Structure formats: structure tokens, C-alpha cells
């Protein structure tokens, strides 16, 4: 079986197909995300452009590893009452951390739905983000908001936490996804208190906790006594841009490009034409999956708007990417440029 398999990761939609107001950090938005199953449209331009505005992704080796590791942890903790182990996904921006943990959550929830089809009130996954400059109460409120618990400004931290723990246990939560953990600064009092609050949730809830954040080690998540405890209980999976050095690495990158290419709703796009530009695409995007997705989808939208219905090198060249990708590309000459320089040397 290929290491790269198609996996649609889509935003929440309402029954009319329009984007819903609820974000993934609410149970309604999460449920729509898990249940959404779009297909590439063949209709008018607006429908196809709307489809391209969604995040189209494939099942990368990182996603495969995150899902395998987390599901193993979920099974190992079934009879564990304390010191439960968790998982941290960390790396530079644009390497698919949020995509990986939400793919994990979706895969897990769908598996639970298949296993317990009659338990309609079951809510196996919680997805929250750590707010900037968070306090313990702010974090607890994020959990309560996901669960849809009615809160008043008078509710103190203990009341919010107890309501969250009782409700989460009642609805069968067994996987908690916590994004943006780099917002925790253990060197500050509030950051340390939020870390303690997360630890308390992990002790109260019979669930596996999965964190995601930008370079969490540099952010100090493993510093000090609290950090050392996190380091001793959490497995770390690093994310990075796709390499392009060895034949195996190039094949993996080409498979990623091909996977995205097959999702394009273009009427005249020759199959495999983007895969032939794999070196150019890697140079343009620094091997970053987020930049690659943006580049291909943007070029596809332009191909629809200008009526060509297939992506050309000119379409790709016209797309301006993020600063990191543009800086990387500016330091890497194209093969044609390099060959010309060598010929005249």
C-alpha cells in the first residue's frame, strides 16, 4: 500500500453546503468537520472555485505516524488511572501540525461511531486551542465552550473545571486535542498555572491528550520541573518540510504532488503534469505542505478564471507565496539556470 493515501480534511459546512459559523473548537463545528464528505464538482465555475477554497490534503507519512502512535496510546491507557502518556506534534509553521492532529481526531471519532453506532450522544474527541496569554480559567472555558456548557461570569475556576470533567466523562471523551501549546510560557506564573491546569484535566479525564505547537522545545515547554514531567510522559513527533535529496525523498514528494493533483476539478488538466514539475514545486515551496497546497489551489483557480482549465508553469509562477517560501526559492536557482552557468564557466 502506498504511504500516501487520499484523506479529505475539510471545513465545517451546514446542510446547505455553506460554511458554518461554528469553528472546530465547538462540538457543532467539529461534528460537521468529521462528517463532511465533499466530492470534486463538475458544475459551474463558482462551485469549483468554492471547492478549491477548501483545504485539500493527502495522508502524509507524518499523519500516518501521528494516527498510529495516538491510537496505540488510547489503547494502552484503558486501565491506567494515573501518569497517562500523551503525544506532542511539534515543528516549524506550515508543516501540517494542526492538519495531523485534526486528521487523528477525525479518524478516531469515525472509528468510534462505527463501533458504537447506537450511542448518538457519544462525543469521543475534544479539540481546543490555547489562547494567547492564557489563564487557567480561560483554558477551562475553552473546554466548556467546546462542550456547549452554559457559563456565567460568576462561575469560578473550580465550578467550570468540575462541569467540564463531569460532562466529558459522561459523553465518553477519550481523546483531547490541544492546539497552539507554544502559547504556554512555563517561565511565567500564568503559563505555569495553565500547564498545571492541563495536567489536572489529564488526571481527571480518562483520555489521551495530544498537543500541537510551534517548536515547543524552544518555547520552553520542557523547561523546569513542570517541563521535565511533560517530557517524561509525552512522546514527541517532529514535523518538517519534505526533503528532496535522495531518490526515496523525491518519490515521496512526487506522490504528494500527485495526490493533490488528482483532486483538482479542472476540465482539461493532463493527469501527471504537475508531478513532472516536482523539482520546481519543491523549490518554490521549500517542501512545505501548506505552501504547496496554496500554490496548486491558487493556480487552479486562475486556470478556471482564464478559461484554460489546466495549470501551466505560468499559472504557478504568478502565485505569490508566503515570505518563508519566497525567501527559500530566491536562494535556489532553477536547474536551467544552474546548467547555463556551468556551460559558460
TrEMBL record:
GO terms for molecular function: ATP binding. Keywords: ATP-binding, Nucleotide-binding. Residues 1-45 are annotated as: Disordered. InterPro entries: AAA+_ATPase (IPR003593), P-loop_NTPase (IPR027417), TniB (IPR008868). Gene3D superfamilies: P-loop containing nucleotide triphosphate hydrolases. It holds the Pfam family TniB. The keyword Nucleotide-binding applies. Residues 12-21 have a biased composition (Acidic residues). It comes from the Bacteria. Residues 83-331 form the AAA+ ATPase domain. Coiled coil: none annotated. This is ATP-binding protein.
Amino acid at each position: 500500500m502506498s504511504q500516501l493515501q487520499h484523506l479529505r480534511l475539510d471545513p465545517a459546512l451546514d446542510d446547505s453546503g455553506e460554511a458554518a459559523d461554528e469553528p472546530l473548537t465547538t462540538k457543532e463545528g467539529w461534528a460537521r468537520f468529521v462528517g463532511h464528505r465533499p466530492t470534486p464538482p463538475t458544475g459551474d465555475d463558482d462551485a469549483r472555485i468554492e471547492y478549491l477554497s477548501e483545504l485539500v490534503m493527502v495522508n502524509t507519512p507524518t499523519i500516518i505516524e501521528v494516527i498510529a502512535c495516538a491510537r496505540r496510546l488510547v489503547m494502552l491507557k484503558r486501565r491506567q488511572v494515573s501518569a497517562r502518556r500523551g503525544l506532542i506534534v511539534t515543528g516549524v509553521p506550515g508543516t501540517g501540525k494542526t492538519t495531523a492532529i485534526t486528521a487523528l481526531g477525525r479518524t478516531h471519532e469515525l472509528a468510534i461511531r462505527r463501533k458504537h453506532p447506537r450511542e448518538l450522544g457519544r462525543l469521543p474527541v475534544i479539540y481546543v486551542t490555547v489562547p494567547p496569554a492564557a489563564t487557567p480559567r480561560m483554558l477551562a472555558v475553552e473546554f466548556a465552550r467546546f462542550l456547549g456548557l452554559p457559563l456565567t461570569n460568576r462561575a469560578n475556576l473550580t465550578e467550570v473545571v468540575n462541569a467540564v470533567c463531569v460532562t466529558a466523562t459522561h459523553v465518553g471523551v477519550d481523546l483531547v486535542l490541544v492546539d497552539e501549546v507554544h502559547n504556554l510560557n512555563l517561565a511565567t506564573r500564568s503559563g505555569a498555572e495553565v500547564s498545571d491546569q492541563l495536567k489536572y484535566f489529564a488526571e481527571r479525564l480518562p483520555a489521551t491528550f495530544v498537543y500541537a505547537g510551534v517548536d515547543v522545545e524552544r518555547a520552553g515547554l520542557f523547561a523546569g520541573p513542570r517541563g521535565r514531567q511533560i517530557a517524561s510522559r509525552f512522546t514527541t513527533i517532529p514535523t518538517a518540510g519534505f526533503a528532496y535529496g535522495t531518490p526515496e525523498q523525491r518519490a515521496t514528494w512526487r506522490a504528494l504532488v500527485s495526490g493533490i493533483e488528482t483532486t483538482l476539478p479542472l476540465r482539461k488538466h493532463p493527469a501527471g503534469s504537475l508531478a513532472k514539475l516536482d523539482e520546481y514545486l519543491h523549490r518554490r515551496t521549500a517542501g512545505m505542505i501548506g505552501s504547496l497546497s496554496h500554490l496548486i489551489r491558487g493556480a487552479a483557480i486562475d486556470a478556471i478564471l482564464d478559461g484554460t482549465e489546466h495549470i501551466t508553469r505560468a499559472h504557478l509562477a504568478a502565485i505569490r507565496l508566503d515570505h518563508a517560501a519566497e525567501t527559500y526559492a530566491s536562494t535556489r536557482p532553477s536547474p536551467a539556470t544552474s546548467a547555463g552557468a556551468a556551460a559558460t564557466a
